[in-house]
UniProtKB/TrEMBL annotation:
FtsK domain sequence ranges: 463-667
Transmembrane parts of this sequence: 41-63, 102-122, 134-152, 172-192
UniProt KW keywords: ATP-binding, Cell cycle, Cell division, Cell membrane, Chromosome partition, DNA-binding, Membrane, Nucleotide-binding, Transmembrane, Transmembrane helix
Species: Winogradskyella bathintestinalis
Protein's membrane topology: Multi-pass membrane protein
SMART domains xref list: Ftsk_gamma (SM00843)
Listed name of the protein: DNA translocase FtsK 4TM domain-containing protein
Entry-linked InterPro entries: FtsK/SpoIIIE/SftA, FtsK_4TM, FtsK_alpha, FtsK_dom, Ftsk_gamma, P-loop_NTPase, WH-like_DNA-bd_sf, WH_DNA-bd_sf
Amino acid sequence: MAKKTTKKKTTSKAKPKTKAKSNVKAKIKRPSFKLSNQQKLIFGSFLIIIGVLLFISFLSFVFTGKEDQSVLSNFPERTDQYKNWASQLGAWVSEFFITKGFGLPSFIFAGLLFLSGVYVTLNLNKVKLRKHWIWGTLIVIWLSILFGFFTHKYDVLGGTIGFEMNQFFQDYSGKAGTILLLLFGLIAYLAIRFKVTGDTIVNSFKRAKKSIKEDLQAENTTNEPVVTFDNSLTDEAEAIKSAFEIPLENKEPTISNHSKPNPKKEVVAEELTMEVTEKPKEETVDTPELTMEVDTVEEEKSESDNLADKLVEDFGHFDPTLELGKYQFPTLDLLKKYHNEGISIDQEELEENKNRIVETLSNYKIGITSIKATIGPTVTLYEIVPDAGIRISKIKNLEDDIALSLAALGIRIIAPIPGKGTIGIEVPNKNSTIVSMRSVIASQKFQKSDMQLPIAFGKTISNETFVVDLAKMPHMLMAGATGQGKSVGLNAVLTSLLYKKHPAEVKFVLVDPKKVELTLFNKIERHYLAKLPDSEDAIITDNTKVINTLNSLCIEMDNRYEMLKNAFCRNIAEYNAKFKARKLNPNDGHAFLPYIVLVVDEFADLIMTAGKEVETPIARLAQLARAIGIHLIIATQRPSVNVITGIIKANFPARIAFRVTSKIDSRTILDGSGADQLIGRGDMLYTQGNELIRIQCAFVDTPEVEKITEFIGSQKAYPDAHLLPEYVGEEGGTNLDIDISDRDKLFRDAAELIVTAQQGSASLLQRKLKLGYNRAGRIIDQLEAAGIVGNFEGSKARQVLVPDLASLDQLLDNE
Ligand SMILES: Nc1ncnc2c1ncn2[C@@H]1O[C@H](COP(=O)(O)OP(=O)(O)OP(=O)(O)O)[C@@H](O)[C@H]1O
């Protein structure tokens, strides 16, 4: 039975692989046809000339086409004499377009070509040009059918296409049907292109009717003052005019002076009506013109929306990848294929394990009603349904006995399997297979995922590719004893992101105290890495420098929150979508925000050398950074409680455990046992708060990572790595005799802020007073000179020496 199910699975997996492969290739190649300005001029003028030539040929064909018919069949004979002004070619092209094509409407094509030339030469909006072509072609077809309606044979009026299409329509719907179809086409065109609505038509009829009425009235009552209104007044004006008829008549003395139609007075009257259009609404409430007003109100848009729409219409959506427009994603063939990939079924082994499980359980008087096996890359899951009335805890307690009888390491009992109502016994396969990075990257699940930061970790026990979104996690803790696959796991995470995200969309901050694990990523520094402005290497190997980077990330986080607040967005996805739709002005400090992924390898080492100082910024980032696109991945060999403290654990819901040596370590990382029963070599447990999922991590070797980074590194890059905000913590306050008169204008504000917050940090000033790095640093020096803050204490905030605002006032007044 087991054989059947697994066979099915393996064959069904084979197909998507190849499909996905082509899918990747399609994604990877992104051709772009960008012309330089000179090329645009050449191409544009070429199009203009072709347009003019076509026009001349067509025009001449109308007069000379018949005469050239006799020689057309000899084309391209050089000796023949053509009457067409553009000779052979002109006659031939015109014959093709006009007689064999769309008839006289083909002139529009000449116009479109000419227009295209102008657009290309002057570098005008391509979206509009596309619209012209679409509408132009539709008009050509419509006119061609219309002209074809009036002809009874192929001729120049509607061309062959017009005539044939007409015949086609007439055969099916008769003459009346064809006319109605054409009429429908016209109406649809007017409605879509010129936004004509039922109301507009009704109103224009009414307007025409009124103006005729007015004309008649004007003739009958030439002596009345009211007739000074112009006939071309709008409906609204008419309504208001009637509303004001009485007051105007009452002001007889002034109006009677101008009883004769006077052009100046007409203007005055018109202006008067224009000004009061809104006010007399109530008087005109029963007039049909009101519907027009409602229409305009409906279509009204806010100014910024209009501007954004216009910008999008003119330039399209903002494309953050444009700066590296020719960037090519790494190809699949950079990743290795392994010979021992794919699941092989050992029927004997399956049968043997089944018998042993049944036997062991029956020794303890546990009967089984059914047993089912699911073969994964490293372990096989035996799902059993025990007889009714058997307590689950009884089976769970037999874990060691079953392990003993199967003589295998890494047996894990899941009792019960959540949502299934069965009990699972995971038994390692004798021959485990490698899950290659290539197979998970090529999987449809990964390729088609629309996650923000998709990570293909490996394959689950049922051999499905396991893909998760780092943006949703939103931070990840990874632990495992040495040599169990942590570094490979980190590489799998980074590789997944490199295969899916453009350099403009994601940046990595890499901390590698071991100095060797992540060095390969140096090659992609200017594509994908982020660093502090003054640092030389993007990958941080010195633990003391990590604190600056972490604090800088905190500043970046605060800055991003400020930007999100100003843009009225709740998270980075909304913000970036708004920015792409050109609704946020870069001049107001807005910019496209890439995701930032902070990877810390050997976190225990970091805590040991840099002490608790790293814990605060890490905890801050973990608590707050999820919405603004900063995600943390922290890996450690020793998951002891003094490394993974409560505050860190609480903020890292997603945990990954490779094999650990003790149950206690497993409990620290997973809040339960299990990680101690894994078999190592990439065998891992993943949890995001609820159930544990056993996964075989995808294997990506160092040469593969090297090939990928070389592939990316050899392409055009940004001028520098992505720069993080400067962090001033390291700057020492030395200049203690700063002149009082030289103090910064914001000195007092800064002093009050620092005393109120009781925190002597320059980054606080930067944030709250919106200062640059240098100015905030100078103010801190001045505060130190004034005795308000203490000495520079490394990366810690300075001590504040003044307890409250009253003391501060006293101190400054005494100076
Ligand atoms: N997913 C995997 N599939 C197959 N083999 C693996 C996998 N992950 C790791 N291994 C094997 O385990 C070895 C050690 O892995 P890795 O270097 O990732 O361990 P580590 O946990 O980072 O160790 P350390 O903490 O000492 O750096 C690898 O060289 C490889 O042979």
